[in-house]
Amino acid sequence: MASARAQSNSWLLVISSVLFLGTLCAATSEYAPSLSENYYEKTCPQAADIVEKYVNKFLKKDSSFAGALSRLQFHDCWVGGCDGSVLLNSTETNSAEKDGHVNFGLRGVTEIDEIKAALESACPGVVSCADIIIAAARDATFKAGGPWWPVALGRKDGRVSTDLLADGNLPFPVLNFTLLVDNFARKNFSAREMVVLSGAHTIGNTHCNGILPHLYNFTGANNATDIDPALNKGFAAFLKKNCPQGNRTNTIFINSTPGKFDNVYYKSVLAGKGIFITDSALITDSLGKKIVTSFAKANSTFFEEFAAAMVKMGNLGVLTGSQGEIRKTCQFVN
C-alpha cells in the first residue's frame, strides 16, 4: 500500500508538471522552431528508450551522477546555444569549451558519447549529441526524484567550441548576486529563473576548485582566515577538512542529499551552507532571499519552475537543418 501511494504521488507530480508546462508552452510558443517532441518517431523510435537505459546504468553506478548530466545541459546551452559544443575535444590549434577554466572537472562527456555509440548502432547518423544532452538531463533529474518535463528534439550539432567562449559566458562560482543576475539576463532569464536554476546544486558533487575562494581567498588575502563571513562556521570547517588550501582536485558532495533532487539546497543556503560563493550570494539580496525562502518551504513551486526553466534553456541557440551536423562521435566534428 505504501509503495502504491508513493507511486501515485509520483504520477501526480508528473501530471502537475505536464499541466503547468502545457499552459506555459501554449502561452509563449515555448519550443524553438523545427523542434518537436516526436522528432525521432519515424527515424529512430527507440531513441528515448536507449537514452533512458544508459541513464539508468550511470545512476545505478553513482546516484549523484544525475547532477553531472543536469549541469552538462547548462554548460552546453549557455555557450553559443544547445549544440553539443561542450563535448568537443581540443585540437592542436584550438582549445575547446570543456578545457576552459569555468569547466574544470566537468563530468558526463564520456557517458554522452557512450549513449551516442548505442544510438549510432541502432540508427546511424540520426540522433544529435545536442539532443542526447537534453534528453539525458531530463531523465537523470526525474530519476533522482525531480520533476519531469517534455523534451523537444531536432537540434543539430555545432562545429565551433572554444575555451574563451566558455569562460566568457558561463558564470564563475565567485560571482555576487548582481553579476549573477546580469549573466542570466544576457540569456533573457530573470533573477527568479537564476535562483531556480541554481537549485540544480541540490544533486551531485564538485571539485574543490570552485570552493577554495569561499574558504581561503574571499577578499583576496589568500590565507586560511580569509573565509566568506556568510558561511556557517561549522560548515566552513567541514569544507576545509575536505578541501585543504591549494587542493583543487578533491571532490565533495554538493549537498547533504547528493543523489536526490529536492529542495534541501535552499534550506542549506539559508543556513549558511551554500557550497559556492554564488550559492551564498543568493541571500545577500532581498529579492534573492525571498525566493530562496519560498523554495525552502514544503509544497513550493520549485519543481514546476525548474522544469519550465530547463525547457526554456533547451531553446537557446538551437541549430537546425544545414546550420549544423549529426556527429558520428560526440567529441569530434565530422
UniProtKB/TrEMBL annotation:
<feature type="binding site">
    <location>
        <position position="76"/>
    </location>
    <ligand>
        <name>Ca(2+) 1</name>
    </ligand>
</feature>
<feature type="domain" description="Plant heme peroxidase family profile">
    <location>
        <begin position="34"/>
        <end position="334"/>
    </location>
</feature>
<keyword id="KW-0732">Signal</keyword>
<keyword id="KW-0560">Oxidoreductase</keyword>
<feature type="site" description="Transition state stabilizer">
    <location>
        <position position="71"/>
    </location>
</feature>
<keyword id="KW-0106">Calcium</keyword>
<dbReference type="InterPro" id="IPR000823">
    <property type="entry name" value="Peroxidase_pln"/>
</dbReference>
<feature type="binding site" description="axial binding residue">
    <location>
        <position position="201"/>
    </location>
    <ligand>
        <name>heme b</name>
    </ligand>
</feature>
<dbReference type="InterPro" id="IPR019793">
    <property type="entry name" value="Peroxidases_heam-ligand_BS"/>
</dbReference>
<dbReference type="GO" id="GO:0006979">
    <property type="term" value="P:response to oxidative stress"/>
</dbReference>
<feature type="binding site">
    <location>
        <position position="171"/>
    </location>
    <ligand>
        <name>substrate</name>
    </ligand>
</feature>
<protein>
    <recommendedName>
        <fullName>Peroxidase</fullName>
        <ecNumber>1.11.1.7</ecNumber>
    </recommendedName>
</protein>
<dbReference type="GO" id="GO:0046872">
    <property type="term" value="F:metal ion binding"/>
</dbReference>
<keyword id="KW-0964">Secreted</keyword>
<keyword id="KW-0349">Heme</keyword>
<feature type="signal peptide">
    <location>
        <begin position="1"/>
        <end position="27"/>
    </location>
</feature>
<feature type="binding site">
    <location>
        <position position="79"/>
    </location>
    <ligand>
        <name>Ca(2+) 1</name>
    </ligand>
</feature>
<keyword id="KW-1015">Disulfide bond</keyword>
<comment type="similarity">
    <text>Belongs to the peroxidase family. Classical plant (class III) peroxidase subfamily.</text>
</comment>
<feature type="binding site">
    <location>
        <position position="97"/>
    </location>
    <ligand>
        <name>Ca(2+) 1</name>
    </ligand>
</feature>
<dbReference type="InterPro" id="IPR002016">
    <property type="entry name" value="Haem_peroxidase"/>
</dbReference>
<feature type="binding site">
    <location>
        <position position="81"/>
    </location>
    <ligand>
        <name>Ca(2+) 1</name>
    </ligand>
</feature>
<keyword id="KW-0479">Metal-binding</keyword>
<keyword id="KW-0408">Iron</keyword>
<feature type="binding site">
    <location>
        <position position="262"/>
    </location>
    <ligand>
        <name>Ca(2+) 2</name>
    </ligand>
</feature>
<feature type="binding site">
    <location>
        <position position="85"/>
    </location>
    <ligand>
        <name>Ca(2+) 1</name>
    </ligand>
</feature>
<feature type="binding site">
    <location>
        <position position="83"/>
    </location>
    <ligand>
        <name>Ca(2+) 1</name>
    </ligand>
</feature>
<comment type="similarity">
    <text>Belongs to the peroxidase family. Ascorbate peroxidase subfamily.</text>
</comment>
<comment type="function">
    <text>Removal of H(2)O(2), oxidation of toxic reductants, biosynthesis and degradation of lignin, suberization, auxin catabolism, response to environmental stresses such as wounding, pathogen attack and oxidative stress.</text>
</comment>
<dbReference type="InterPro" id="IPR033905">
    <property type="entry name" value="Secretory_peroxidase"/>
</dbReference>
<dbReference type="GO" id="GO:0140825">
    <property type="term" value="F:lactoperoxidase activity"/>
</dbReference>
<dbReference type="GO" id="GO:0042744">
    <property type="term" value="P:hydrogen peroxide catabolic process"/>
</dbReference>
<feature type="disulfide bond">
    <location>
        <begin position="77"/>
        <end position="82"/>
    </location>
</feature>
<feature type="binding site">
    <location>
        <position position="257"/>
    </location>
    <ligand>
        <name>Ca(2+) 2</name>
    </ligand>
</feature>
<feature type="disulfide bond">
    <location>
        <begin position="129"/>
        <end position="330"/>
    </location>
</feature>
<feature type="disulfide bond">
    <location>
        <begin position="44"/>
        <end position="123"/>
    </location>
</feature>
<dbReference type="Pfam" id="PF00141">
    <property type="entry name" value="peroxidase"/>
</dbReference>
<feature type="binding site">
    <location>
        <position position="202"/>
    </location>
    <ligand>
        <name>Ca(2+) 2</name>
    </ligand>
</feature>
<dbReference type="GO" id="GO:0005576">
    <property type="term" value="C:extracellular region"/>
</dbReference>
<keyword id="KW-0575">Peroxidase</keyword>
<dbReference type="GO" id="GO:0020037">
    <property type="term" value="F:heme binding"/>
</dbReference>
<feature type="disulfide bond">
    <location>
        <begin position="208"/>
        <end position="243"/>
    </location>
</feature>
